[in-house]
Amino acid sequence: MAADLEALARRHKLRMAARCIRGGGILAYPTEAVYGLGCDPRDRAAVQRLLAIKRRPEHKGLILIAADFAQLAPFVGPLDATSMQAIHATWPGPVTWLLPARADTPGWLRGRHATLAVRVTAHPIAAALCTAAGGALVSTSANISDRPPARTPLQVRLALGSQVDLVLAGPCGTRARPSRIRDGRTGAVIRA
């Protein structure tokens, strides 16, 4: 009975989080290493608000996370089969890849780059959130730029206060550092 109630509560929290995202809200949620700050990547006003909260310039670009590659496909262009095989071998997992951005991928996501940073997350709450929201989400560390990232809901609230519409509580993964970033065309490690 208690397990059923816990599962029901988790589903309810995910539905609330998905409603927040679809309504243009900013959400904090656990990822593989730190709390992420996210929103609907197609909602320019939400992305601009997220960037203002972080004090992050748009030209740097953002990361999108997803529950599976199909959620990322509308944002990225094709790569050769060998490169894609190497990328898919790391997912789901804590590796973010820079892939060619589709021509119609908004500049507020890719910044001044021809690529877009994307990851199929292995974190169960983050993946469930993407599924509940029906697509990929912006995912950047929940902190003001150049300050330590939050690892707990309390740290999110202390750092960002009421600027975040909803905090989806849960444990972060065991990684000590944010995801590795690699170039999808060359395989080069951009951030270890």
Can you put this structure into words, describing what you see?
With 192 residues, this protein is an alpha/beta fold. It has one domain: DHBP synthase, CATH 3.90.870.10. The chain is 34% helix and 19% strand. It has seven helices and ten strands. The strands form two sheets. Strands 6-3-5-4-9-10 form a six-stranded mixed β-sheet. A four-stranded mixed β-sheet has the order 7-2-1-8, with helices on both faces. A hairpin with a 5-residue loop joins strand 9 and strand 10. Helix 1 crosses helix 6. The radius of gyration is 16 Å and the shape is globular. The chain starts with a helix and ends with a strand. The model has no long low-confidence stretch (mean pLDDT 94).
Provide a count of the helices. Answer: 7
Structural class: alpha/beta
Largest pleated sheet: 6 strands, mixed
- Trace the largest sheet across and list its strands: 6-3-5-4-9-10
What's the total count of β strands? 10
N-to-C span: 44 Å
Topology:
Elements (H helix, E strand, L loop, with lengths): L1 H21 L4 E4 L4 E4 L5 H11 L8 E4 L2 H4 L8 H8 L6 E6 L6 H4 L4 E6 L3 H10 L3 E2 L1 E2 L11 H8 L5 E2 L12 E4 L5 E3 L1
Parallel strand pairs: 1-8, 3-5, 4-9
Antiparallel strand pairs: 1-2, 2-7, 3-6, 4-5, 9-10
Helix pairs in contact: 1-6
